[in-house]
Amino acid sequence: MLTKRIIPCIDVDLDDEGNAAVYTGVNFEDLKYTGDPVEMAKAYNEAGADEFVFLDITASSEGRETMLDTVRAVADEVFIPLTVGGGIRTRDDIKETLRAGADKVSINTAALETPELITAGATAFGNQCIVISVDARRRFDEGGEHYVDVDGESCWFECTVKGGREGTGVDVVEWAQEAESRGAGELFVNSIDADGTKDGYDIPLMRAVCDAVSTPVIASSGCGSPEHAYEVFTEADADAALAASIFHFDEYSIEETKQYLAERDIPVRL
């Protein structure tokens, strides 16, 4: 059985002086300064993380390029797989991000706008480099294709763009299947509803996506304890659990989280 991965993530933006800084928020809003991206990357590399995710959280919404100088500095400190997302719109953007030291790129808005980018990236650089990020939110109307029961109500999940600021009308499960067919090597599924709440992953969302595809799925948003990672592995069969706040603020360590999982027969790399 493949080991389950524990992945810390940093959300990076430019501060008032134009310097890269890590921010943490709730439901993609109310962002608060958390730390220096390079120092945090170095700490997570040493702490036993399986992979590391760097997200430039406003590059797409502001129409600017990813902060590649900071990516290079982070890559110098990280010797585990590094995924970089935010502001990646073209094949050349993928190339430059990989050249800056990323092992994978995470694409959301541009992939939805131009699905052919997935195939172009996978063909040029390999499927393993292409991670499709999905910022999903719950909808309780008749606009979806795939419905699940959430607390007794029929719900579908909508893809959003620009950091969750805009809906697209695209059904998450439909999009996950299309992304897989176009060559995505991994799916990075975020929940707008659960983000920053520490109430646990959106299990109905994660289960719906994991059941629909064979591509590895990284579950993101809502992790507040090692128990939540256990739940998303056992109840949704996610391949990786991503977390931010619980690690950033030393509520739990990566070592503690993995030990908790190992004691409950979840295969992890210790």
Fold topology:
Elements: E1 5-14, E2 20-26, E3 29-35, H1 37-47, E4 52-56, H2 59-62, H3 68-75, E5 82-85, H4 91-99, E6 104-107, H5 109-113, H6 116-125, E7 130-139, E8 148-150, E9 153-161, E10 166-171, H7 172-182, E11 186-191, H8 203-212, E12 217-220, H9 226-235, E13 240-243, H10 245-248, H11 254-263
Parallel strand pairs: 1-4, 1-13, 4-5, 5-6, 6-7, 7-11, 11-12, 12-13
Antiparallel strand pairs: 1-2, 2-3, 7-9, 8-9, 9-10
**CATH H-level superfamily title:** Aldolase class I
The poorly predicted ranges are none
**Total domains:** 1
Oligomer: single chain
Structural class: alpha/beta
**Strand line-up in the sheet with most strands:** 1-4-5-6-7-11-12-13
How much helix is in the residues? 25-40%
**Nearest-integer average pLDDT:** 93
What is the end-to-end distance? Answer: 15 Å
Can you give a write-up of this model?
Helix 1 (37-47) runs parallel beside helix 3 and helix 9 (226-235) crosses helix 11 (254-263). This protein is α/β, with parallel strands linked by helices and 270 residues long. The radius of gyration is 17 Å and the shape is globular. The chain has helices at residues 37-47, 59-62, 68-75, 91-99, 109-113, 116-125, 172-182, 203-212, 226-235, 245-248, 254-263; strands at 5-14, 20-26, 29-35, 52-56, 82-85, 104-107, 130-139, 148-150, 153-161, 166-171, 186-191, 217-220, 240-243. The longest helix is centred in the first third of the chain and has 11 residues, at 37-47. It contains eleven helices and 13 strands. It has one domain: Aldolase class I (TIM Barrel, Alpha-Beta Barrel), CATH 3.20.20.70.
